[in-house]
Design a protein that fits this description.
This protein has a domain of about 70 residues. About 45% of the residues lie in helices and about 0% in strands. It has three helices and no strands. The N and C termini lie far apart (about 145 Å).
């Protein structure tokens, strides 16, 4: 840290300030503080004119830099805010629509599960009804009420012609009678 201003030595009286340089101001005596209070730290003195370095030539003046236009900075930040709002808004919209689709799918799955349960119950009821209707005792009772009876004897009628066919269920009996019998091993025949 620099020395306090009251501790700097006074310039000699024959030193004259250069043209345009700051003239030193006579210093006042420092104030005395009551005992027990610490002294306040003083800020270093600042010069009002910029200090030129010895490496810079005096003939050149520094070129002023163009200050950035505040409207251009605002446009950039406004553009960023618009882009940010669009990206965040589209993400929120996407999440909301995805949530709605998942909720709809969940409702459809629940409806399908209820429909499957109802159809399984209906299938069970129809299977029981089919078993009850096809019971032999029920069919016999219905046939007797309708005037039907069991035949006493079963007769087969053969149609005259070259090819003989057996009636339904009688093909095995016809084939057995037309085949020659095989000789029994060890027996007379």
């Amino acid at each position: 840290m620099s020395q306090p201003a009251h501790a700097l030595p006074e310039p000699a009286p024959d030193d004259r300030p250069l043209h345009g340089a700051a003239v030193p101001v006579p210093r006042r005596a420092p104030r005395t503080r009551p005992a027990g209070k610490p002294p306040r730290p003083q800020a270093p003195l600042r010069r009002k004119t910029p200090v030129r370095h010895q490496t810079e030539p005096l003939s050149e003046t520094p070129r002023p830099r163009a200050a950035p236009k505040p409207t251009a900075r605002r446009r950039g930040s406004v553009g960023f805010l618009v882009l940010f709002a669009i990206v965040v808004g589209s993400m929120v919209l996407g999440l909301v629509s995805l949530s709605a689709l998942l909720a709809e799918s969940s409702f459809r799955a629940d409806d399908l599960q209820h429909r499957i349960d109802a159809l399984a119950q209906e299938n069970l009821d129809l299977t029981r009804e089919q078993a009850a209707l096809s019971a032999p005792g029920r069919i016999d009772a219905w046939a007797r009420r309708s005037g039907m009876r069991l035949p006493d004897d079963i007769r087969f009628l053969h149609v005259p012609g070259e090819a003989q066919t057996a009636p339904a269920g009688g093909a095995d009996a016809l084939a057995r009678t037309e085949r020659p019998l095989k000789p029994v091993v060890g027996g007379s025949g």
